Amino acid sequence: xxxxxxxxxxxxxxxxxxxxxxxxxxxxxxxxxxxxxxxxxxxxxxxxxxxxxxxxxxxxxxxxxxxxxxxxxxxxxxxxxxxxxxxxxxxxxxxxxxxxxxxxxxxxxxxxxxxxxxxxxxxxxxxxxxxxxxxxxxxxxxxxxxxxxxxxxxxxxxxxxxxxxxxxxxxxxxx
Length: 175
Fold this sequence. Notes:
By secondary structure, this protein is α+β, with helices and mostly antiparallel strands. The chain has helices at 18-24, 28-33, 41-56, 103-117, 131-139, and strands spanning 3-4, 8-11, 62-67, 73-82, 87-94, 123-128, 143-154, 157-167. It has an eight-stranded mixed beta sheet, sandwiched between helices. The chain is globular. The relative contact order is 0.14.
């Protein structure tokens, strides 16, 4: 799957994304999302190889977010689809050097549209404990449905998360 937006390509990871992915791991928030596992280029390459294997098996769960003008990896978006319930959960991150440019909002909007239009899903949700992420989700039309207490364990801390969601009937592709 390749989704193209005004500024982004949402595409499969490539072997050549290794250095950009390792660079993104310099950000503590991104690094924690991967359970502190990416401490070397070899570990990053193992992860990318795992994704490439999943692609060969027909699984498109985790995709790269690349800047369209350079095709450089600047983030990642994961889509966990439960077809039986016509819903998906998304998670994403953007390299700290590319934040505050609207890229996260643009990527999430594209994925929401893909989920409703191409996958015929009815509900998209995203849990977050990050205030910046909350702002992104609100901009995409998602509504906060509540808080899940101590839902994420990061290191030795258990964190509360807010769950945001949008239904197909609420989706406005122009927004």
